[in-house]
Structures are given as C-alpha cells and as structure tokens.
Amino acid sequence: MTITIYHNPDCGTSRNTLAIIRQSGEEPEVIEYLKNPPSRERLVELIAAMGMTPRQLLREKGTPYAELNLGDPKWTDDEILDFMLAHPILINRPIVVSPLGVVLARPSEKVLDILPNPQIGAFTKEDGEVVIDSQGKRVA
C-alpha cells in the first residue's frame, strides 16, 4: 500500500503528520514539495480529490500571499494555480494521499481518517499536544 506525503520538513504540522503515518506502520513516499513541486496536472488532481478549490489550498502565513494581493477575488482558479506553481510555498501542506483518500492534514491528526491502520497507539505532537491517549483513543 502506498502513501504519499507532500512534505515541508520545516513545518511542525508536516513533521507531526509524517510521524503519525510512520507510527501507523507505513513508510510513505515523502515529496519535499518546495524542492519538487507537483506538476500543474497533479496539483489539479490533488485539489479535486480533496474537494477543494485552488483558493482554499492557498497558504497565507510565511508566503508572498499579501504582496501578490492573492486575497483579491479577481484571481481565477487558473491564475491561483499559476501563482502556486511559481511560488510552491503558497501550497498549503501537508497533503497526504493514500488508497483511502486525499487530505490536507491540518491539523495533523486528520491523516488518521485515511490511514489503513489508524490504530497507532499513544501519540503526542512535538508541542506536547496529545492526539491519541494511552488507551488508543483520539483526544478531541
């Protein structure tokens, strides 16, 4: 079974998501999307599989979002895709693809919804937030 994560190792949410996948017993294909961005066709496929629009996948924090005036509704989906391809940091992450679906794993525990083995045992995020308790139950 193949799981793919579009990953940014500098992002805590992305690191936590990768750790959850690995703790589930899977070793995913890790694509550092800032170094190897998806093609336009692949990005369109991912967005469609998540049931999102390109605008919904835009990342604002730590990106050129404001300086490019991407909050302006004048930009079409195609234009937003052009911006994402020119500036991959604008693609929100992590995106995880599994045989069970595709999710933007924000928060990181959303990845549990598409893991073949979501029973991973206790898990605590890097910041100390408990995601799964010692009895294996998700903490709300």
UniProtKB/TrEMBL annotation:
Domain of life of the source: Bacteria
Pfam families: ArsC (PF03960)
Protein's recorded name: Arsenate reductase
PROSITE patterns: ARSC
GO molecular function, one term: arsenate reductase (glutaredoxin) activity
Coiled coil: none
EC number in record: 1.20.4.1
Protein family (similarity comment): Belongs to the ArsC family.
Keywords: Arsenical resistance, Oxidoreductase
InterPro entries per the UniProt record, alphabetical: Arsenate_reductase, Arsenate_reductase-like, Thioredoxin-like_sf
Catalytic activity of the protein: [glutaredoxin]-dithiol + arsenate + glutathione + H(+) = glutathionyl-S-S-[glutaredoxin] + arsenite + H2O
Organism (species): Mesorhizobium qingshengii
